[in-house]
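Field: COMPLEX_INPUT
Field: COMPONENT_COUNT = two
Field: RESIDUE_TOTAL = 562
Field: MODE = joint
Values follow.
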Amino acid sequence: MIELLQISRGGSGGVTGAKILAEAALYEGVESQAIPKYGSERRGAAVEAYVRFDDKPIRIHSPVVEPDIAMVLDTSLIDRLDLSKIKQDGIIIINSKEIPEAFKGTNRKIAYVDATAISLNLGLVAGGFTLVNTTMLGAFAKATGLVSIENIIKGIEHTLNPRIAPKNVEATKKAFEETKVVIV
Amino acid sequence: MVGKTVTLTGNFAAGKAAEMAKPKVIAVYPITPQTDIIEYLSGLVSSGKLDARFITVESEHSALAACAGAAWSGVRTFTATSSQGLLYMGEWVFWSGYGRLPIIMPVVNRCLAPGWSIFVDLQDSMAFRDAGWIQIYTKNNQEVFDTVLQAFKIGESKDISLPVMPCLDGFVLSHTTAKVELPDPEEAYSFVGDYSDPVVEVDVDNPWAYGGLVGPEQFNIARRDLMKAMERAKEKIIKVNKEFEETFGRSYGNGLIEQYGDDDADLTLITMGTMGDEADEAIDQLKQEGYKVNGVRVRTFRPFPVEDIVRIAKKNRKLFVLDRAVSFGHEGPLRIEIEAVLKRHNLDIPISGDIVGLGGESVPFKRIMKIAKEALRS
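Field: COMPLEX_OUTPUT
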């Protein structure tokens, strides 16, 4: 089983992104589960979501504690990651122009992309929030290879309104191209 | 059309099953975490995709009262609720059960206030143990879909005529997206069948009194009838579980309970809901560490699977019950039932238990493993 912890800000589409990822995994022939962590969080607050992937039915329903993959949708939330909880051979995927100082020398696999810039350029903004959920799914596909970019796109087209899906598809493709994967 | 595999939340799985059963009357009041179920159905009715009367009401009390009225007129009836909403329905929950009105009502389990919380425990539905409703608890989104569909077939059959609560853990299932295999809608409908022969059917040309004043004699006839119907419901649930397997290729134990793991175990974990799924994971991991533990997930809390519990108790060495609700002043409701069964059948088998997961507290399989190891030592 592979487990993902995703941290985003309420309003930026993180919960929908996790659902799209679960749907894309289905096309990949992989069992999946997307759990949004609800609470007193409101728009703008840090929100967690968990996604599990497995080749057999998933029986675990509790939150992900020690993820294989951690993905942070908002640059200002990167310091929320507890590196000690993320598996050493795991992957950290961040929305960032550069590799944060704190990660350097940790011998970690980091994937980074300026998702905010990509989304802003495409006008992916709603209610004052830049929507980076689908953009980061492009980074996820590139960094992990768990789900192909084609299936991510299929998941986006299945889940989102046809009016907004094309821009999101464009964002995910652009992020897939631009994501850099390095060992720091 | 053919069946398809999709990803859905537990709430949408419940909504899809209701859609395929084509209820004629849906009366609802929204409450977290049940809301998606009724939003989905209201969308279907307003867009003309589902031919039903959708009654929006000012409270849960009225929602179930409207369903009861509809059920009395002999039509397929659906609603859903959670927590405080279920409590507010209270009077009509009992009226519907004792009135033998086969309303199908998923309860998205949520704890009761205070403290104000929207997360899962089973305190809400457990409070209606004695209301004359069949209660079926589910472990994943697929079982939510399957159980809601089965509920119509079980509750509406003429020899049962009882309301059914398919129960699903709030958020843990209701808001979690997972794979669900949906049958072809026509095949699903033909499995459920028409509600063509209701026990109660108001006929204006043949006026009758419903819920009128009765003396002790008639009252006791009605209550004993209800007791017998609940007893028959066990066989019906087993039968529907089998038919479901023949039609769709899926089943849940014998319908009343689901067992997991090897027979020759030192400890048997007894659970309900998603904790049962998580316990199966714990059982596999414990096996790898050399511990012999097996599991029983009680699917139907009412009717209670007495015969199955007797059979399991005779075959095993030690029982441990994980309850997600409390009967204050005593123990967890599931443990109380099991201890009563053991006593009545003179089964001298060690039993203990713990109350876990209240108010949405997570019960990961690692914690279940720890609990099991402690139980094995004591």
